[in-house]
């Protein structure tokens, strides 16, 4: 991969490119938010970003630290109760794309964002489901973005937080889940999409300088590869400039929010 950009930048740009202008997107914090805001600042200015805290049409100038970040509310078209986001927007089928991250994904696009290790005694406790299960079940389609390695692309999830295609085939439809499921997975190596019949994820696109063998080596199961794997173009100068400027503004804003050496007061659980 060219030294002009990093694998992480390529992944963010590739994810941003998948979002069409005017779509209604339910955004997760982290990589999904980064990609969605890059899309909004480049080719999709009418992209409608909805966050779980109840903000509709947010246009943040910096990347939010959490769904409760004030930047989302102050730049939103409207702020509504969380219940309205799920009942009126998500359950009513008004979300075009649910954009999610995760710690683990399996070959059928099921996600884990709850624990690593046994649930009763995990080695790592993750942020948890939030609204990820409802988003993956009810959004018209789901996009997933995460870095690819055998630790994240696993044969078996430690915990299934969000449903993809369950056991594959028509098992998602038989379970009564109305959304189309994870129609694409964007990684730092390429893009995977579900096979139309088995619903198993397969490599469809790779980045310049990335080989199929590299993608297979970064996957914890025998990865399916499409008959033709397209090579995606690298980031444009505009995409990189906008992304890097967004990160620079975010770093500056967050540095100003927390003074060096300041420690938060302990929280009593009594």
Short synopsis of the structure:
The protein has 270 residues and is of the alpha/beta class. Helices cover 27% and strands 20% of the residues.
Protein topology:
Blueprint: H1 7-17, E1 24-27, H2 31-41, E2 48-50, E3 55-56, H3 70-74, E4 78-79, H4 82-90, E5 97-100, E6 104-105, E7 111-112, E8 115-116, E9 124-125, H5 132-138, E10 141-145, H6 171-174, E11 182-186, E12 190-194, E13 201-207, H7 212-217, E14 224-232, H8 237-257
Parallel strand pairs: 1-2, 1-5, 5-10, 10-11, 13-14
Antiparallel strand pairs: 3-4, 6-7, 8-9, 11-12, 12-13
Helix pairs in contact: 1-2
Overall geometric form: globular
Strand arrangement within the widest β-sheet reads 2-1-5-10-11-12-13-14
Give a quick account of the main beta sheet: strands, pairing sense, barrel closure.
Answer: 8 strands, mixed
SSE order in H/E notation? HEHEEHEHEEEEEHEHEEEHEH
- Taking pLDDT < 50 over at least 5 consecutive residues as the criterion, the unreliable ranges are 259-270
CA radius of gyration is 19 Å
Helix content: 25-40%
Distance between the termini: 52 Å
Indicate the structural class.
Answer: alpha/beta
Average predicted confidence as pLDDT:
93
- Number of helical elements: 8
Notes on the structure:
- Helix 1 (7-17) crosses helix 2.
- The chain starts with 6 loop residues before the first helix and ends in a 13-residue tail after the last helix.
- The protein has helices at 7-17, 31-41, 70-74, 82-90, 132-138, 171-174, 212-217, 237-257; strands at residues 24-27, 48-50, 55-56, 78-79, 97-100, 104-105, 111-112, 115-116, 124-125, 141-145, 182-186, 190-194, 201-207, 224-232.
- The strands form four sheets. Strands 2-1-5-10-11-12-13-14 form an eight-stranded mixed sheet, sandwiched between helices. It has a two-stranded antiparallel ribbon with strand order 3-4.
- It contains eight helices and 14 strands.
- The chain has 270 residues and is an alpha/beta fold.
- Mean pLDDT is 93; it is low at 259-270.
